[in-house]
Design brief:
Helices cover 85% and strands 0% of the residues. The chain contains two helices and no strands. The longest helix has 42 residues. It starts with a helix and ends in a 5-residue tail after the last helix.
């Protein structure tokens, strides 16, 4: 019984650490790495530059948010 409680608590702590790593370390890195490419690609879009940047950053954010649900508790 006590072993199951300890296992559950440790599992929760590990899941929280993975979630923190996912959202606070990898997420900003992905944004910073993709931003120069987005700025360059937006120059060649037919829509306005600001709208193109906002739309592409939204696509990256939605992709990251959707995949984040798979590893967060």
């Amino acid at each position: 019984m006590i072993q199951a409680v300890i296992e559950g608590v440790l599992g929760l702590i590990i899941e929280c650490l993975i979630s923190l790593f996912w959202w606070f370390i990898l997420f900003p890195v992905v944004w910073l790495v993709s931003l120069p490419f987005i700025l360059i690609i937006a120059l060649f879009r037919r829509e306005r530059y600001g709208f193109a940047i906002a739309r592409m950053l939204t696509i990256i954010h939605c992709f990251w948010r959707d995949w984040g649900f798979f590893i967060t508790p």
